[in-house]
């Protein structure tokens, strides 16, 4: 009896081994990320003769809607009543970089009619191809005040607080003249798609930045790279 049991067990093991040979288990391949596709946002610029650099993952952190073409309607008991275009939105997105005690913000700004935007918690452009389109951008001198100009704005904290635009207060006259950025430029030089479908924006820039007393400094030889993410629904 023992011999028969052992013989049966041996036959079962041989059958199992044969099944394994006929139907090998195929392990799924391990997909390793391409290191070139792990793209960090980065910035480099010269200020006060010093090269400043910073990089991070996902520098975009703030989207905002404000009323374009704002102006003072009336002043009652020192309270300023402001109005603007009701059928449009000044849409902006901010990208920020930090390193040690230094910080620099890039604010992309464009006015849209509400009819071409999707509404939710905030108004968002239905089509953002023109928002990130290759080409020159003006510096929006009245950003946070009248909000009448499309373009770009820069804030920088580097041994003091400076920005490319004037005061946001209606209690004082505009602090910058129309030629405040006459010899400055911001140019989006490329928006390219990577192998994984991400869109990468590159820009060159220089600018004059001002403190709250209208003291100024130069930013030169600026380079900006931003991972815009998956934008195939827009860039077709």
What is the structure about, briefly put?
With 236 residues, the chain is mostly beta strands. It has one helix at 2-22, and strands at residues 41-47, 50-56, 60-66, 71-76, 79-83, 88-99, 102-113, 117-119, 123-125, 135-137, 151-157, 161-163, 185-193, 198-210, 216-230. The chain has one domain (28-230).
Number of domains: 1
The largest β sheet comes out as: 6 strands, antiparallel
Per the principal axes of the C-alpha atoms, what is the gross shape?
globular
Overall pLDDT? 84
How far apart, in Å, are the first and last alpha carbons?
A: 76 Å
Rg, Å, rounded: 29 Å
Query: Could you give the order of the helices and strands?
Result: HEEEEEEEEEEEEEEE
Number of strands: 15
- What level of helicity do the residues show? under 10%
Number of helices: 1
Residue share in β-strands? over 45%
Overall structural class, as computed from helix and strand content, comes to: mainly beta
Low-confidence stretches: 1-14, 18-22, 30-35
What order do the strands of the largest sheet run in, or round the barrel if closed?
2-1-15-14-13-10
């Amino acid at each position: 009896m023992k011999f028969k049991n052992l013989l049966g067990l041996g036959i079962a093991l041989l059958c199992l081994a044969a099944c394994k040979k006929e139907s090998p288990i195929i392990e799924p391949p391990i997909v390793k990320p391409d290191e070139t596709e792990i793209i960090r946002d980065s910035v480099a610029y010269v200020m006060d003769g010093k090269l400043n650099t910073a990089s991070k993952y996902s520098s975009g952190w703030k989207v905002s809607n404000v009323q374009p073409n704002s102006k003072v309607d009336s002043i009652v008991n020192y309270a300023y009543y402001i109005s603007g275009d009701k059928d449009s939105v000044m849409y902006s997105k901010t990208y920020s970089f930090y390193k040690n005690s230094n910080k620099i913000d890039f604010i992309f700004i464009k006015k849209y009619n509400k009819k071409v935007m999707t509404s939710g918690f905030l108004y968002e452009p239905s089509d953002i191809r023109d928002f990130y389109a290759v080409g020159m951008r003006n510096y929006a001198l009245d950003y946070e005040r009248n909000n009448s100009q499309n373009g770009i704005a820069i804030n920088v904290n580097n041994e003091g607080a400076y920005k490319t635009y004037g005061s946001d207060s209606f209690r004082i006259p505009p602090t910058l003249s129309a030629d405040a950025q006459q010899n400055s430029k911001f140019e989006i030089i490329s928006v390219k798609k990577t192998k994984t479908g991400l869109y990468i924006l590159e820009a060159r820039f220089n600018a004059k930045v001002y403190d709250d007393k209208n003291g100024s400094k130069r930013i030169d030889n600026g380079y900006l790279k931003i991972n815009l993410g998956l934008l195939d629904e827009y860039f077709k």
